[in-house]
Amino acid sequence: MELLMLNKVSYQYEKTEKPVLKDITCAFETGRLYCVTGASGAGKSTLLSLIAGLDIPTSGEILYDGQDIAAVNRDDWRSKKIGVIFQSYNLLQNATATENVLLSMNIAGNSNSNSLSEAYELLSQVGINKEKANRKILKLSGGEQQRVAIARAIAGGSPILAADEPTGNLDGNNEKAIMEIFQQLAHDKKKCVIVVTHSQEATTYADEVIMMQNGCLKEM
Question: What is the pTM of this model?
């Protein structure tokens, strides 16, 4: 089912002449894993930033269930509709893995008497056991931190997950594990998962690969 639609989306920085994105039209469906790839400067991260509501298109529209996300509260959009995963993790370093997940649940308004148990369950789903869940983030490896970042992103119940180079700092084994988690979230949990990546290995896990070149979609 089509969940997110980009309709002739363009983006240009102020006081510049060349657009970063030009007339991007594509659709994203529930239950599918998408990989957006292309050379550096192709516009991949800018596209993800627009989908995440961190920026607004210069022209065109991004529709969620038919509604332009430019017209909705962007804080609500990022806390309840889309979970964003960064290459640098962006976790609270002096908090535990569990505390990071609980904070995300609280921001999304999903806190309840069972929140702690739910946080442990979410972390378990991405391969973080209870002992590691109670460690400070600084005491976890890079691969473990990325797993925590994924758990935090899904803690708000968002139907969309958007990840910017989530395996860029990881070795081959951890990349495989993370992409398998994304695949499971798409196919089993029916999330719409959008991954920006330079990695050709990562794209092998995708249901659909979107190639970008010079701010445009490139025919595969």
Answer: 0.93
